Amino acid sequence: MGGVLLELRGLSKSYDGRARALDDVSLEVRRGEFVSVIGSSGAGKSTLLRCVNRLVDPTEGSVAFDGDDMVRARGRALRACRRRIAMVFQHYNLVHRATAIENVLQGRLGYKSTIAGMLGLFSEEEKRRAFEILDQVGLADFAYTRTDQLSGGQKQRVGIARALVQDPLLMLADEPIASLDPKSSRTVMEHLRWAADELGVACLVNLHQVDFALEFSDRIVGLAGGRLVFDGAPDELDEAMIARIYGANAEDAEGFGVAAGAVRSAERPGAPSAAPASVAAAGPAATSDGPTASGVVAA
Ligand SMILES: Nc1ncnc2c1ncn2[C@@H]1O[C@H](COP(=O)(O)OP(=O)(O)O)[C@@H](O)[C@H]1O
Ligand SMILES: [Mg+2]
Questions:
Q1: Where do the structural domains in the chain lie, given as residue ranges?
Q2: Any ligand 1 atom below 6 A from CB of 55
Q3: Would you identify the CATH topology of the domain 1-84+170-184+191-299?
Q4: Which band of pLDDT confidence, cut at 50, 70 and 90, is reported for residue 96?
Q5: Tens digits of residue pLDDT in 271-293
Q6: Residue among 11, 14, 15 whose CB has most ligand 1 atoms within 8 A, to mutate
Q7: Amino acid 248: pLDDT
Q8: Which member of 69, 165, 235, 298 has the greatest number of CB atoms within 10 A?
Q9: Can you list the pairs that 197-201 forms with residues at least 24 positions away whose Cβ atoms lie under 8 Å?
C-alpha cells in the first residue's frame, strides 16, 4: 500500500436543507487499500461515495483525490479526476443489448471526444486491453456475448472490467453484491480484492454484508446516522461496535453471526497483519474511547 490517495475532511451533506445525510466525516484511503463502508440503510454510505466523485456536491468539507481538490474542480479538471475514479453499481448499469466487450469499452469514453465515443472509435490497443481485462475477471469466453445473456455475477464482473479499463486509481463500489447469491458475491469480492492487490487500485466499497467486509477489507468504516462511528482494522470490529453501527437495525448486520470469530482478514493469505493507522479505533479500548471522539450518534 502506498501513500494517501483520497482524503476526506469534515465532509457533510444535507439534501435540500434537511438533516445531514453525511455529518462531519473525515477519512483517508491509501493507494491500493481496500476499505469497506458498512452501516444500515440510510446511514449515508451512498452519499459518501457520491461526494467523492461529485455526483453529489458536499455541503461542507473537502475531498482531496491524488492531490487535487475535488470539491472545487470544474470542467476539464473535474473530468480528468473522474477518469481515475471508476464506479461499480449494484445493478451493474450495463447496456443490455451490447456485448460484454462493448460494455467494457464504455469505460474508455472518458478519454475520448464525444464524436469518437459516439462512433465507437476505439483503438486496437484499447480493444486488446478490454479483452485482456475480461480474461482476467474470467470472462474471456463471454467477451462477444450480449450482457443480457449473462448471470448476475458475470454482469458484475463486466462492470468491474469496465471500471478497470479506465485505468483508475480508485474504484468506488456501491453495494456491488447486494443483488447476488453468496457464491457470485464471493467471486465478485475476490475480483475487487484482486484489483487492489495486483493492480494497486484502491477500493472504497459500500457493503451490507458484514461477513464479507470482515473477510476482504484492509479497513472497515462504520457509518451511523451520517456520522463516522468506526474506522479500524477488521479484527477491531467487535459485536458491541456492530450493534452500535447498526443501532436498532442490528438484524441488518447480515452474516455477522457467521463471521464473528470465524473469518478474520488475518487468516486470509496475504492479508496485512498490522492494523493501519486509524483515526478512531486502536484496539479494544477504542470501542469506548476512540470512535466517541468523532461523535457517536445512535442510529
Ligand atoms: N437525492 C436525495 N435527496 C434527498 N435525500 C436523500 C437523497 N439521497 C439520499 N437521501 C437521504 O440521505 C440519507 C442517507 O442516504 P444514503 O446515502 O442513500 O444512505 P445509504 O446508502 O447508507 O442507505 C437518507 O436519509 C436518505 O433518505
Ligand atoms: Mg446506499
A1: 1-84+170-184+191-299, 93-167
A2: no
A3: Rossmann fold (3.40.50)
A4: very high
A5: 343 333 333 333 333 333 323 22
A6: 15
A7: 65
A8: 165
A9: 197/32, 197/270, 199/164, 200/2, 200/31, 200/32, 201/32, 201/86, 201/164, 201/168, 201/169, 201/170, 201/171
